[in-house]
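Pasting as-is:
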Amino acid sequence: MGLLDKLFGFTKIRYVYGGSSSRSAPFSQEAYEQEVVRAVIDCIATHAAKAEALHVIMDRDGRVKEIKRSSPYAKLLNQKPNPIMTGYDLKYKMIAQLQDRTTALCYVKWNGMTPEMMIPIPFNNFEICEVRGGGYAVRFIDYWGEQRALLMEDVVVLRKFYNRREGGGDGNGPLQNSLEMLQASNDGLISALTVSNKVRGLFKHKKAMLAPEQVKGSQDEFAKRFQDAAENGGIVGIDAMEEYVPLNVTPWSANAAQMKEIRENILRYWRISDNILRSDYDESQWQAFYESVIEPLLIMMGQAFTNVCFTQTERDHGNRIIFNTSVLMNTAMTTKVSIITASREIGLFTRNELREMFGYSPIEGGDEIEVSLNYVKATDQSKYQTGEVQDEQDGAD
């Protein structure tokens, strides 16, 4: 039936009813079948999935003091979270599900204290319930109609439009009117084109009082002559008792301004511009898209995975999952050069970080930070001017 049957099994939990507000919002699959909607979701998920997950240790000031490169969490999130997915697949599916259903769920399967797999949950609907004896569980029905339950502490939950419901996002109901107008316009255009391509004209027979079957026979016979003429010369012969009047059927649908407004409604709903959707954006447009759409998603994912992957004690010791992406990859070349020029003397970037901005591969020894010797601490200025620093160094030798 699916990956869940082999990896999840059934979790027996005695739970208490959680209430209607803890259930998932009503979901319609029709929205994702719309061309514009799917393009928007794919655009957001594609850019967000490029982020690299890092297991870091934060200091007391909230700054990264260590990156654990060999962490099992980072390996699962970036390489192979489960037998059928890559790290990119996992992140893409989570973000796509979040945009489509306003809630995304991911199960972290443990082998003792070590994470073994991370599996996005393909739910039709779900409910968060209180467990007898303490804690919470996520009870859901998967795509194959099976009901399952998992402890909340093992489930990563991402939510969008998180307001009225306790368990998940409020759904994409407000978008329905725009989707219906867009679908009606598309259906109307297809129907109009079908009629205009099939109805060619009116065939009049001047003989009076013909039986319906005679009219039908004359019509069929004329249609055959019309087709033969199209294939063999283009001239249709008619007698004195027949008349053919061509019809010019003009297809009708919503005009360009109406269609544009409907499309803009959908794009505004996701806070995405048409330039971003068409991958025809400039530096400022990308920066706005990143700060308003992508960055909040990465913050949300980092906090959600941190809370499930680490205990409170581990979090108190600074363990975090963060999702990092290079904002400068999509900036203009002149901006990158300006950043390098302004920062190269203070050691803000390593050589490999600078190479990454331009899409070049790292080099050996490129992770060392190089700084200029032309800068000193403000408190040491007088010592350098009088040579006291050099005297101190000579004395130490």
